[in-house]
């Protein structure tokens, strides 16, 4: 958490900010509906009753309600002393840390899955967790309030409690599995796929006992029913149809309709230089290579991964915007990034025993770290806006091209930023409505202490503000590595 907090950019450019505005409106008024004068947000849908409602699902808004309550309290205290513009900036600064919390929980849950669910050593579980964080686009999304990040946290927690249920078969774990699946469903509708994958896993786990299957089915259905009822009611409120969300209507068909070319989507998600899963989660290559071994030792878990990943891949390949429109890489897949890496992470010891696998792992991890660091140094949203101004945002260039693909463009941007800081070269300016501070940090180092300096806060104040986080990072890092090395020494 301290790492994600230190490397946060201090502002958010995703649609999650609009989820926050709705959360703040609900805290202020107690109403889901609003008028354009109350919340002038882009992601609105006019319902049959004439009110406007959020187009996206409610999960991210739900988790932002405590943050909105805190921000409104801060605003009430500070309003006599500072301008409303300063308060708005402070609100944005506070909410920018929320995806880091989601990501920290996800990474911790992934560690626990490896140790509890698959009996990996603490050292191997740590390596698996660090692989997820540093060699994929996971770190970049730790500072993005996109609801897929929250969905990823909820899905990873559901898998953790599924592994606990496998070990102990206690009803409380099963209930928690479906609570988190239900929350993920009201966050993103595509979470219906892990619900089916989990049901399939439970059938396999109890395949020799029909009474147990029936009992599990009853508990699971009762647990998830309130979430299904909520989603049905919320759909009906917004579109007049209990089975149709606004994101499934013609308004959003250009991105979300399922009439895209599946072969284009599949080839893009697997092979394109700009949006391939294997570019942004490179160690997933090892998951493919080691899947047979994973299946031999963990048959049910391997089938769970296969069902979830294959259905997720097929569904999103059929979307008109199969890579998720404006985003860093194939953004829909951030929700299942831990699942993609599971076969690799479970087999880390096996990798260490084979030279060619070690070399391949180091090469893929090195690329992942390079791309991850590049995306932290720069700003993918800013780079997309810059590419649009230069007429490079065309799919043929940005997705299917190589030297100007999104991934290579980001590496070049990071190198340019480092050179710009070293030489004092002018920053990149855009014709669009990016602030001067945003342009500065996006052209130099895109973290919040640098943004503080860009808006006129003295450098020593900005550095002093990071000291508690550096202390927490050092202390917690020492504890983490002590655990890993103590276990290694004990084994020796």
Characterise this structure.
With 492 residues, the chain is an all-alpha fold. Helices cover 68% and strands 1% of the residues. The chain is built from 26 helices and two strands. It has helices at residues 2-6, 16-29, 59-78, 84-95, 98-117, 122-134, 138-141, 147-168, 171-185, 192-205, 210-239, 253-256, 262-271, 277-280, 284-289, 291-297, 299-317, 337-346, 348-352, 355-377, 380-389, 395-398, 406-423, 436-443, 448-454, 459-491, and strands spanning 44-46, 52-54. A two-stranded antiparallel ribbon has the order 1-2. A hairpin with a 5-residue loop joins β1 (44-46) and β2 (52-54). The longest helix is centred in the C-terminal third of the chain and has 33 residues, at 459-491. The mean pLDDT is 93.
